[in-house]
Amino acid sequence: MGSQAGPKVFDFECLAGFFMTQPSMKQDSTYALATHAEFGLIPQSYGTQAGSTEDGQLTPWQRFANHVEQLNRDAKDGELYKVLYVGRHGQGFHNVMEAKVGTPDWENHWALLDGDGDAIWADSELTDQGKREAIDNGKVWRRLIEQEKMPWPALYCSPLQRCLETARLSFEELAASQGKTYQPMVKENLRERMGRHTCDRRSSRTWIHEHYPAYLIEPGFTEKDELFEADRRETDEEHIARTRIAMEDIFETEPRAFVSITMHSMASRMLMQVIGQEPFRLSPGSTTAFLVKATRS
What we know:
Elements: E1 10-14, E2 32-33, H1 60-74, E3 79-88, H2 93-101, H3 103-108, H4 128-146, E4 154-157, H5 161-177, E5 185-186, H6 205-211, E6 216-217, H7 236-253, E7 258-263, H8 265-275, E8 281-282, E9 287-296
Parallel strand pairs: 2-8, 3-7, 4-5, 4-7, 5-6
Antiparallel strand pairs: 1-9, 3-9
Helix pairs in contact: 4-5, 7-8
C-alpha cells in the first residue's frame, strides 16, 4: 500500500519562534486547534533586514515575508526555507456519522460502508456546515491577503472530494479578486490515511477533472484509485513515508516560498511529524502555519 520511500532528499526542521506555540496532543488529545488570527504569526523585528531598521508602515506579514526572502538569499548550498499553510477540510458526512455512532462502531462497521441510506460518505462530500467552514476560512485568507499583505501562496490539495471543495470555497473567488490564476495542484500523497474506510477512497481522475477542471493533476496520477485496499488500513509508518515523499517533491519542485496545503486531520499530523513539529489536531476548516527549513541530505 502507498508509495515506497527512497533515500531522503531533505532533512526538515520546523523553526520555532515565528508562530504561536502549538498545543501538545500529548497534553490533551481531544483538543482541536481553530484558526488563530494572523495564522498565529508572532509580530517581531528581524535582524536579517537591512540595517536592522524596519519600515513602520509594513505589516507584520510583510516584515515576515521579507525575512523569509532574506533567509533564502543567505541560505547555504542545499538549504531552503518555505512557509507551509496547513489547512484541514471542513466537516464531511463521515465526520457526522462517526460522531453519531461513536468511534468504535465507526471503525468496525460504518466506515466500511459507502453510506447508511440517508447519507453517503464514500469519498465524503462536505456537509452544509463544512461548506460554511470552508467559506469562513476563505474570509480569513481574504483579510490577511488584502489587509495584512500576506503573500499569496502556491496551492496544493488532497485528491479527496472534501479537500477539493474546501480549496474551491476558500480560494477560488479570492484568487479572481487578486488577479491570480486559480490552479491548485492535486497530489496523491496528500490524501488521508488509506484503506478500509470508504471515506478515504478517492474518485477517478476523470471525475476530478470533470468536477474541478481548473485543478492541475500531478503526473502519474492514475485513473482509478490503485492505492486503496478494502481489507487493510495504512500504518503510521507507511503514511509518514508517503507524506515525506510529498513534502520532498514540493520542496524540490515548487519555486515559491509560501505554500498552502489543503488536507486532512490525520494527514496533517503526519506532515507535522515529517517537518519535526510535535503533532496536534486541527479543527475542521482551520488553518495553521509553519516556517520550515529543508537541508539537502
